[in-house]
Amino acid sequence: MSSKRKVCIIGAGPCGMTALFHFDQISDPSTEVVCFEKSDTWLGLWNFTWMTGTDEFGELCHGGMYKHLWSNGPKEGLEYPDYTFDDHYGKAIPSFPPRRVLRDYMEGRLVKKSKSDLKRYIKWNTVVRYVTYNQKSDVFTVTAEDLKTGRTFENKFTHVIVATGIFNNPNKPTFDGIETFPGRTIHSHDFRDAAQFKGQRVLVVGASYSAEDVALQCLKFGAKSIVTSYRSKPMNFKWPSGIEERPLIKKIDGKMINFIDGSSAEVDSIILCTGYKYSFPCLEDNLRLVSTLSVYPAGLYKGSLWLNDGNRKLFYMGTQDQYFSFTMFDAQGLWICRYITGTLPNEPKNIEEMKKEEQKWVQRRKNVKDCHDDIDIQADFIKDLSDGTGYHPDAPNAVELFHKWEHDKMANIVTYRDQPFKSVFSGTMAAQHKPWFQDFDDSIDSFVN
Amino acid sequence: MSSKRKVCIIGAGPCGMTALFHFDQISDPSTEVVCFEKSDTWLGLWNFTWMTGTDEFGELCHGGMYKHLWSNGPKEGLEYPDYTFDDHYGKAIPSFPPRRVLRDYMEGRLVKKSKSDLKRYIKWNTVVRYVTYNQKSDVFTVTAEDLKTGRTFENKFTHVIVATGIFNNPNKPTFDGIETFPGRTIHSHDFRDAAQFKGQRVLVVGASYSAEDVALQCLKFGAKSIVTSYRSKPMNFKWPSGIEERPLIKKIDGKMINFIDGSSAEVDSIILCTGYKYSFPCLEDNLRLVSTLSVYPAGLYKGSLWLNDGNRKLFYMGTQDQYFSFTMFDAQGLWICRYITGTLPNEPKNIEEMKKEEQKWVQRRKNVKDCHDDIDIQADFIKDLSDGTGYHPDAPNAVELFHKWEHDKMANIVTYRDQPFKSVFSGTMAAQHKPWFQDFDDSIDSFVN
């Protein structure tokens, strides 16, 4: 290969773009970067499409974005230190923005803060079919297809960064009777608009972020009633009238849902908010992350570098259960970029040391008691990533916002999005806003002004 | 390779299974056959699942089957000569059976007429990721993944039969305003139950089999009104009250659909019955059929043998626009099986002759005036396949049934399924049945007795 390093980034979502952003910042003359993106636009799941199942090329619809989605975490917990919300909007805005406001913010940084036009690195409508690594030549072969021409081609790379996301392979448990349920049954990945469930009695299966938000969205947009069903433990929020929690489904009999506590409820639609499974089908077996979702999935040094095949030239981004999200991706993207370009002097040379380090984190993660422990781990993870890279030292300080946010949610699940937070970077206190539950206008203009 | 021939069949749907059936019948000792099937059951789209988008392994949901689907063609046009409906059900049954009745019939033949247990040839839950052909070694390499273990492996084959179907890649045109339409929008591939549209005003986009049937199903199951939209020409059936045809969509404005003739209609849901595109992503470029759907897609000798790469060891099944369906697959499966095992003495040795022959058919197809010409081509195609193989000579005679069937549809689109047809193999006249539009019981028991 002509240049010293040739880096392949798979996916131009928030993760892949932050890696690209930092490579562009560093502009290392001996590092060439190419990003393959399946769709025709960047920022991945932060784009909305009516399509479900397959896209216009017959590829899997990657994102599960829905209309009227507002951030469920404070924007001050996902800010970019070098481009704050103040920088983008020129004024204080409220803490829990709708989708478009966040997408616009991310795009603003990509356009305004990058040295060159980042689009020039990206091969659009190009899906990666397969990645193999040859030990002998120390090279990755990436097989990709240009979806517009149908042409398949192979490229060689010295490094690969997997940034395809963790919300594309819906976990679909089955329940006795689900096939004969006479209403609509979807996974939340195919949920596009709560307004479609207006007037209906809805069963929401699950007890995590999706279940919580889909239940609230359905109520907000006029569902008649919502019953949620948990497997291990209830969400235990002080639910507004119209939402109630039940344990696991025992059996579905026509429209009647029978739960294991002996109770039952008749519903019109079922929405499985049962989460996602890691899915990296385009990687050969020994390159493929296989793990359960957590704040520190096993197998990754610094939560990023794939250890299991020993070659240390493959990276994963954003595979963590996320609190800090964009900030974390950013710290991670910078670390990966520095690691690849060899500008991190203090990293261990020895893979055994890396594995020991990784195990320390995995052990800590295994001992967590609650979400507050998870938040602390993620803050420390960002600190750990930042130490060698010089990433903004205040980034982990958003940890306090997340602790407060969890308390806000427990205090009132309907109003937690109305609370203002203070930016750890700009010190700006968020603006106040119309209560989320009563606000049906999610345009940028309405939210910002 | 140990045996003389090693054949890979991709897909255990109605096509793949008929190929497997004939290999089993011939039981050629120097031919080994393996079938890779993505799901855990055979007969492909004739199985129903509530799932849309992805299956339990995160693979694309292959089938677009919906509840309450009844055959839209007479069963006498898709019968197996060596196992008639009489043979399976032991009595005359009506001509237009619901899904379960057809699936049960196909399964009956696979179980009762095969020499050995066909399941022993099938690797279940195994998805083919990539197929390449090496000119030098004259061998195909098939890369597949065992979805249950996540293990990827490579196998070598002398021949490959692609039987993955043509109804898995939805064609998704876009329309101005579709992203902001406030109701539900799906492609018919994700249509699972007409009852979900009860009481609604539905827009059905398209003017072919799916559009016709989805519109009728929605009306049958209580939709308030259905407007269909055609691109090139209307279906022109004598629609019952509640269904009307409009030309192409100009713009979607909220719930209001504006058509190019200046008319408009407010609707609650949009169902795109806009067909499918060929999709064979698991094949390398020069093995991949690229064509538009027709009764004789270009590039295939005898509608089956891939000519474009010149190796003549790759086969496609069921890529034709279908009238005779199962019968055609069966004649085709037998021809492929005989061709591979070298028991067709009269086939041309020369690829140029094959190409000339293929061009003759493609030219004839290009000159068709209407569906009746298409039906005649397909009957002659089955005759052409049968000549060398000794397939039942009466098979093409069902051509007359299809001509009558088209007339029945034009006469009355609601009652055409109530007409009885006579089997060309058994001579049995179909039984009469409760009118389809009033029959909501699609169980085998109700239909047969």
UniProtKB/TrEMBL annotation, chains A, B:
Keywords: FAD, Flavoprotein, Monooxygenase, NADP, Oxidoreductase. GO terms for molecular function: flavin adenine dinucleotide binding; N,N-dimethylaniline monooxygenase activity; NADP binding. Its cofactor is FAD. Its EC number is 1.-.-.-. The keyword Oxidoreductase applies. It is an enzyme of class 1 (oxidoreductase). It comes from the Eukaryota. Belongs to the FMO family. InterPro entries: FAD/NAD-bd_sf (IPR036188), Flavin_mOase (IPR000960), Flavin_mOase-like (IPR020946), FMO-like (IPR050346). PANTHER family: DIMETHYLANILINE MONOOXYGENASE (PTHR23023). The keyword NADP applies. This is Flavin-containing monooxygenase.
